[in-house]
Amino acid sequence: MTAEITYLNFINGVWKKGSGTRSVENVNPANRKVLGMIYESSKADVDVAVQAAVQAQKTWRLVPAPARGEFLFRIGELLRKNKERLAQLLTSEMGKVIAEARGEVQEAIDMAYFMGGEGRRLVGQTVPSELPNKQAMSFRAPVGVAGLITPWNFPIAIASWKIFPALVSGNSVVWKPATDTPALAYEFVKLIEEAGVPKGVINLVFGSGSTVGTALVEHPDVNIVSFTGSTEVGRAISSKAGEQFKKVSLEMGGKNAIIVMDDADLDLAVDGIIWSAFGTAGQRCTACSRLIVHEPIKEDLENRLLSRISELKMGDGLDETVQIGPVINEPALKSIHEYVRIGQEEGANLLCGGQILKSGDCQNGFFYAPTLFTNVNREMRVAREEIFGPVLSIISVTSLEEAIEVNNEVNYGLSSSIFTNDTNRTFIAMRDLDTGIVYINAGTIGAEIHLPFGGTKHTGNGHRDSGVVALDVFTEWKSVYVDYSQKLQRAQIDNN
């Protein structure tokens, strides 16, 4: 890929540049090489895209749902045929190691097939009426135009979580992807186009959150906004969209914890911790940022972790032997480093890492050393705020009850995990951990697409991506009563 490549908007079936005045380079975070560029869009581009979506949705909603599902099956096949090419591109522009990139593309494939199947279900309810000669039922209806705003850390997987349920439900889409990962969005929509989805049903608009994102949220003809990103931005979106009574689905931050009890399999726990804390360089909303350790095993676990961390290989994720790639850009690098400084200033003990890497395989990219803090107080900022980088803080506890209390006291509630071989402890944790996702004897990452994805408290607003319940975001329930008694019957009226 060369710098001459320009990633174009796709509006009403036509590829064209954004009409904004600013261009943005797409940079490989492993070596800072320019892969291509976008021309940012203006509010006018959003207006054109939304109007195209409005017109297309009038026809698309009348396409039988099983036929809409067939389009998703075709998209899934195209994704499967292009899996390795997309994975290589994903690693080049986002930085995650190639094995993770392949897994992410597979997630989009799985979501296409899963949501394609929902085209033959989209189940409603048929229930008895309280009155004679009357039928009562409910079914799903599309919401209308869906404005989708997606992040850079999962540029195709999270997009598939939103685009596919929106389409199979009969909505049209205007999608604003992150400007840090335009290539995957561009290639993804090209495959959707190739699958034959009618023009105007899917529209791609590149640009900043302040311009394109805001225009989508505030546009009166956008009926639902689905957003994945920071809690701060999500709060602003919720406020703006709420003024217009739009449906809003938010999936935001996390401060996820792994609990390790004194009866745990420590070898297994270390595997789960390393993967959860340092996979994707810690740039997952489900990444493990806190390690809540039962005091009797704290020292042993620390030593095991230090040994494993020292063996981790960092570099360009296209190298099959690399285990940790770069963070996304220089501002992210600086933000992570600032949190490490704060942790040290607050009194946490830095066991390893804590530095920007500028030598060897990491000399040209945005690399941060895997970092481990211990003796972290649960009130410290590094124990409560999302860092979004390869930084793990160890907090010691004396009981399961204290561990659950520490897990639950932060503002976020996305993912949690416990390592224990005690069945009673397992079921107490399943009941009491206040997160949308709970893992037993596994890390905090690795959600499967056929179950709901999302969390509690400041992580979201009650909706879920993925699974059948994702359809609730992109549909409205319609209740229908068919009275064939040939006389006026009144429900909830005492007719005795």
CATH architecture title of the largest domain: 3-Layer(aba) Sandwich
How would a crystallographer describe the biggest sheet? 7 strands, mixed
Q: Count the beta strands.
A: 24
Any idea what the shape is?
A: globular
CATH topology of the largest domain: Aldehyde Dehydrogenase, Chain A, domain 1
| Estimated helix fraction | 25-40%
Question: From the helix content, strand content and strand pairing, which structural class follows?
Answer: alpha/beta
Strand content: 15-25%
CATH H level of the largest domain: which superfamily?
A: Aldehyde Dehydrogenase, Chain A, domain 1
**Whole-number radius of gyration?**
24 Å
Sheet with the most strands: spatial strand order: 15-18-19-14-13-21-22
Separate helix tally:
14
Mean pLDDT: 96
User: How far is it from the N-terminal to the C-terminal residue, by CA?
Assistant: 78 Å
Highest-level CATH class of the largest domain: Alpha Beta
Written account of the structure:
It is a single chain. This protein is 37% helix and 22% strand. The protein contains 14 helices and 24 strands. Strand 4 and strand 5 (34-39) form a beta hairpin. Helix 3 (83-94) crosses helix 4 and helix 9 packs across helix 10. The termini are far apart. The mean pLDDT is 96.
SSE diagram, text form:
Blueprint: E1 6-7, E2 9-11, E3 14-16, E4 23-27, E5 34-39, H1 43-60, H2 65-81, H3 83-94, H4 98-118, E6 125-128, E7 134-142, E8 145-149, H5 157-168, E9 172-176, H6 182-194, E10 202-204, H7 209-218, E11 224-228, H8 231-242, E12 247-251, E13 256-260, H9 266-278, E14 288-294, H10 298-311, H11 330-346, E15 349-352, E16 356-357, E17 367-368, E18 371-374, E19 391-397, H12 400-408, E20 412-413, E21 415-419, H13 423-432, E22 437-440, E23 456-457, H14 470-473, E24 475-483
Parallel strand pairs: 1-5, 8-9, 8-11, 9-10, 11-12, 13-14, 13-21, 14-19, 18-19, 21-22
Antiparallel strand pairs: 2-3, 4-5, 6-7, 7-24, 15-18, 16-17, 20-23
Helix pairs in contact: 1-7, 2-4, 2-6, 3-4, 3-6, 4-5, 9-10
